[in-house]
Amino acid sequence: MPDKWVYVTRNIPQPGLAKLAEQFNIETYQSDEAIPHDVLVSAMKGKRYDALLCMLTDQIDEEVLDAAGPQLKIVATMSVGYEHINLQECGKRNILVANTPGVSTDSVAELTATLLLMTARRVTEGVEAVKKGEWGPWKPMWLCGTELTGRVLGIYGLGRIGFNVGRRLKPFGFSKIYYTDVHEVSYAKDIDAEFVDFDGLIEKCDFICVCCNLTPQTRHMFNAEVFKRMKKGAILINTGRGGVIDHEALTEALRNGDITGAGLDVTEPEPLPPTHPLVSLPNCVILPHMGSNTWDSRNAMAEIAAKNCIAAISDQTPEGIVAA
Ligand code: DGY
């Protein structure tokens, strides 16, 4: 269909571009950086695109959709998260929205387990100490962390990623795994995880992994009042979305010792400025939203996003449909 056009908002891995190029004309914002919103709006006005392949940094709002025009069939995001897309406005215009579920499950689950271990065992403090020449003769109480064995693991959001985090962490010998979600799920039994409500999760668990989406319901679920009720030794890990945690409250909780540590791969805002108080706290490990940064995941994400565009333009149902 050489008369069809797809706009891609960033340089993406080759497998995705190659798939699209087999069938359509492609226009790409040739950069590794996010496209400014006004540039995206102008690009949409410039040509009549049939599909828009975007990233989680692109706000797909009314202005972009108006500029795109009525022939736009799909907004295909190269991400699992889709909170940057105005689903309601897409719905009104009969524009499909699709994401890339499944292909980053392993990469994000692996990074979640990594971050939990790094935070519990104070790995970044150790690395920093070596670099700064602070590694002196052996000391009995230096850089002591928290063992996983015998402790209680909590998973907030037992979807694909949450379940796979549980699967990877279970062999460490937790005494119990609890999870909280909107409802109980049958596959929880495969990791011997027990359903609890949010109060149960925050009061019982030594480690809590946040693996949920950002929705109006999950926004700032972890706030000052919650931190006061968590165990003092608790460690909070977030690889879901930054907005689930109130960062000001987290800063205070880590400073006051309401909880022991936090490991964040997602923050609010992103990027988190180096001057943010959380950055200088030794008990907070911060990574730059790199959960799905493996070639395996990123190639597959690009390919699925491309396939979703192809499906929609060909009047087929895309794989990762979020809203119709
Ligand atoms: C996603 O897919 O939503 C991740 O957060 C980024 O890869």
TrEMBL record:
Q: Residue ranges of the D-isomer specific 2-hydroxyacid dehydrogenase catalytic domain?
A: 6-322
Q: Which CDD domains match?
A: GDH
- Statement: the UniProt record of this protein carries the keyword Signal: no
GO cellular component, alphabetical, reads:
cytosol
Q: Which UniProt keywords apply?
A: Oxidoreductase
Question: Per its UniProt record, what InterPro entries does this chain match?
Answer: D-isomer_2-hydroxyacid_DH, D-isomer_2_OHA_DH_cat_dom, D-isomer_DH_CS, D-isomer_DH_CS1, D-isomer_DH_NAD-bd, NAD(P)-bd_dom_sf
Which is a Pfam family this sequence falls into? 2-Hacid_dh_C
Q: Where is the D-isomer specific 2-hydroxyacid dehydrogenase NAD-binding domain?
A: 114-291
Q: Which GO terms describe its molecular function?
A: glyoxylate reductase (NADPH) activity; hydroxypyruvate reductase (NADH) activity; NAD binding
Family, similarity comment = Belongs to the D-isomer specific 2-hydroxyacid dehydrogenase family.
Q: What is this protein called?
A: Glyoxylate reductase/hydroxypyruvate reductase
**Source organism:** Lymnaea stagnalis (Great pond snail)
